[in-house]
Specification:
By secondary structure, this protein is of the alpha/beta class. The chain folds into three domains: 6-170, P-loop containing nucleotide triphosphate hydrolases (Rossmann fold, 3-Layer(aba) Sandwich), CATH 3.40.50; 180-270, Rossmann fold (3-Layer(aba) Sandwich), CATH 3.40.50.11420; 276-387, Rossmann fold, CATH 3.40.50.11410. The chain contains 13 helices and 14 strands. The strands form three sheets. It has a six-stranded mixed beta sheet with strand order 2-3-1-4-5-6, sandwiched between helices. It has a four-stranded parallel beta sheet with strand order 8-7-9-10, sandwiched between helices. It is globular.
Amino acid sequence: MNETPSANRVHIAFFGRRNAGKSSLVNAVTGQNLAVVSEIKGTTTDPVYKAMELLPLGPVVMIDTPGFDDEGELGELRVNRAKQVLNKTDAAVLVLDGSLPSADTLSSAEAELTGLFAAKGIPYIAVLNKCELSNQNMPGMAYENEILPVSAKTGFNINLLKEKIAVLSLAEEPAQRLVADLIQSGDLVILVIPIDKAAPKGRLILPQQQMIRDILEAGGAALAVKESELALTLDATGKKPALVITDSQVFAQVSAIVPDEIPLTSFSILFARYKGFLQTAVRSAAALDTLRENDKILVCEGCTHHRQCDDIGTVKIPKMIKKHTGKDFEFSFCTAGDFPQDLTSYALIIHCGACMLNEREMRYRRLLAEEQKIPFTNYGITIAHMAGILERSMEIFKAERGLKQE
């Protein structure tokens, strides 16, 4: 379970006022001294993440957040960090401070939080921490949810809280499969994986690992080759592949090798489907051909990594776009959690495959772009569009999902 990628874990975040005991409660639930605990208000200045296994739910990420009532210029920045966590939260714990005489009424920060939970469709449970210090009449408290008294100090109801979190999270819709639902047991799937200067030394990158695992779980056979060995491999296998999945950077080269009767798509396209924005990404790719000279394009990475001299996001894709359109554009780049809220200055957003981001955060980014009427696509779909092979790359989805090219 410790090897489960963060993007595939249920994200459970603890929110509340400063000194409500969020950090102590996270430590109690995880069974570790994960978060720094202090009597001083505002000790938690940045979100703290901890991966663990929560039965019967499975692998999760527990997130401790800064106090939602923080004050001043720095306090506002900390509250904004907490708000950013909401965009990836699958289930929330609202932590109320039982030591306060006003614990039976919502503070403005707590009222804002419950409103945000509702607006974003985040299921939550409210808990009264430090219940050993509370004299509140629980049934009269002004909350929609039942309040669970807990104590991080004594351990009271911590196991019950974990059970309730698991039940809350299990109510979420089952996850989309990467590729397993597109193949059958015994199928051969060929994965085309370039080994160039950008490839990490001695290992496969996360999307490749996840794809292989999903194929194996479906009872298929995963055969990984470099693009230079693809033609020889197709001749030598003696079995027609059910599907070829390629790295987007060699899309055009692979398409020229793979016969038309063999379905072909890319890791990036499958991840767009997995994260729930495939249709949006396909529609938005066409916007590339209508851009004007000097329009702004935002290129987004879901993680932070050391960039090589031929990095796909910052170097290769801008070069491909200039060659395809014959125009000069202004490119901006963002990584990890730095996705801007104001997108109105951009004519197009091109995102990575988002293997490090969960489906809820990708939904937030897609909807934010949609609200501001900014086309939102990804690396692989952009490259397939420019290479003239997007329609072919989508064929495997049309019969099963009713997806139509627009």
